[in-house]
Amino acid sequence: MKIRMRVPATTANLGPGFDVFGGALALYNEFEAEYVTSGRTKFVLKGYGKRALAKGEKNLLWQAMAETFKVLGCDKYNLKNLNITINTGIPLSGGLGSSASAIVGGIALANALCGNKLNKAQMAQLGMRIEGHPDNVAPAVYGGLCVCAKEGGNAADNSKNTDVVKLPVPNLKVVMCAPSFELRTKRSRQILPKNVSLCDAVFNTSRVALLTAAFCTGDYSLLKKGMQDKIHQPYREKMIPAMDAVIKSALDAGAYGAFLSGSGPSIAALCNKKDAEGVQKAMVKTWKKESVSVKSYILDFDRHGVSQI
Ligand code: HSE
Fold it and tell me: Which residues have C-beta within 8 Å of that of residue 41, sequence separation ≥ 6?
């Protein structure tokens, strides 16, 4: 038995929606598990993760599979009877949901091997518990644009459920620039303040309202203000010095809005198809001025989330 899953990249926060907003992108990792009854098993890495990812027990895909087997009470499968192949099409530098993709891929593979006992909502809750914050996992499972509301609101409390609501998928391109340097989410969260001022909270609440209105009404002119943020991007800028300049260059080139993708260092812009190449050129040029090379993409939103292929 051989099972293959495709899981989209994701972009989280979308500016002010820290740990709340996330969108799935048409850029994918593929994960395969094959049950074998004899011989030595293989753990194969391909694509961006070929040299960078751990094999075996330390691999995040495997850890998510093992956790899912445990949840399902299924002890038939282990690394001695499964060939695993990971083909990484999502850059690992950060901000594109590569960890969430591995977690969701692992849950989906293990679930399929055990007879698909979990539905998407149950897979999402399990994935969000493993990842800690929901905003990459939800779109990786469901596709499209998701709003996540965790019970209790404490990102560190993994016992809580999270409500997920899908918003209309914008008919826009996502220009994504993933720089050559890496920034781990853990590090990028450590730099954030424990508390924010009422003033900054009101600023972000108003921008999240504009962001939601933009997606629900299709009035994308609201995105320029609606993607402003005061609770995470200004702190993270210290580790991503080009951030403000790259966002400004995207807006000047005609993007509706631009933001730090997830915890960075990738930066994303939303724009019309006709403006996408110009926005991409402007963003890449600004990164280059800071002597940073980037992988850049013009992407559609993915509408399906994790899928068996
Ligand atoms: N919202 C997270 C953060 C990243 O900005 O740290 C994605 O889960």
Answer: 79, 80, 81, 82, 83, 84
Q: Between the CA of residue 218 and those of 188, 192, 229, 290, 307, what are the distances in Å?
A: 32, 32, 21, 34, 28
Phi, psi of 221 (to 5 degrees): -65, -15
Indicate if ligand 1 lies below 6 Å from the C-beta of 101.
Answer: no
* Cα–ligand 1 centroid distance for 38 (angstroms): 42
Q: Can you spell out the DSSP letters for 110-135?
A: HHHHTTS-S-HHHHHHHHHHHHSSST
Please give the number of the atom of ligand 1 that sits closest to the Cα of 264: 5
Cα 84 versus chain centre, distance: 22
Q: For residue 80, how far is its CA from the centre of ligand 1 (angstroms)? A: 34
pTM: 0.96
And the tokens for 51? 């040299």
For 242-290, the pLDDT digits (tens) are 999 999 999 999 999 999 999 999 999 999 999 999 999 999 999 999 9
Residues whose CB is less than 8 angstroms from the CB of residue 130 and which lie 6 or more positions away in sequence, other chains included: 63, 64, 67, 103, 107
> pLDDT per residue over 152-209, tens digit each?
766 667 777 899 999 999 999 999 999 998 888 888 999 999 999 999 999 999 999 9
Report whether residue 13 contacts ligand 1, using a CB cutoff of 6 Å. yes
Residues in contact with 176: Cβ distance below 8 Å, sequence separation at least 6, in sequence order: 11, 25, 27, 96, 261, 266, 267, 268, 296, 297, 298, 299
Q: Which atom of ligand 1 is nearest to the CA of 131?
A: 8
